[in-house]
Amino acid sequence: MKGQGFLLAAITVVVVAVVVTGFLVMGSPQEARKEELDKRRVEDLRMLANLMTPEPGRPLRDSLDVNGYSPDMKRQLTDPATGAPYEYHLADSTHFELCATFDTEVRPEDLQPYERDWAHAKGRHCFRFDARYPGGPRRVP
User: Could you tell me the strand order of the sheet in which 138-140 lies?
Assistant: First the structure.
């Protein structure tokens, strides 16, 4: 009987150690959700950058009017957690900015080389684009 109590205590310690190690290695479910929301924000901004880039010879849009789109498209124009529209700012005749508020920081070294332009700090962050490039806007510092 005494041996069974020791075995039960040992198994409990091992299970707790595995769970704690899992959280340390993989992060909490809440952190994973924040990371997924931020990935969605970046994907939305990528799509929006293409949407806001005019055809050659046409001017940039003055604003982002979310009311002119279908419900499916509106979801991509708004933050997945808050429902607030992403920010769009016209910088000049060829440059614009798209802004979002991120829950996590993503450093360039944490991304693949082709994704590094999408690194961002935690909090509000704006990405600047040059609309003159064929095949879609180019991110500029």
Answer: 87-90, 95-102, 123-130, 138-140
On whether the CB atoms of residues 75 and 130 are closer than 8 A, the answer is no
Give the sign of the dihedral formed by CA 43, CA 31, CA 113, CA 121.
positive
Task: Report how far residue 139's alpha carbon sits from residue 50's, in angstroms, rounded to the nearest whole number.
Answer: 11
pTM above 0.85, yes or no: no
How far, rounded to the nearest angstrom, does the alpha carbon of residue 42 sit from its chain's CA centroid? 4
Residue 45 CB neighbour total at 10 angstroms? 21
pLDDT, tens digit, 9 for 90 and up, residues 2-50? 667 777 766 776 666 566 565 555 568 899 999 999 999 999 999 888 8
∠ Cα 133 76 95 (to 5°): 30
Most distant CA pair in the chain: distance in Å?
85
Burial 75-92 (b: 16+ CB within 10 A, else e): ebbebbeeeeebebebee
Strand partners, 106: 120
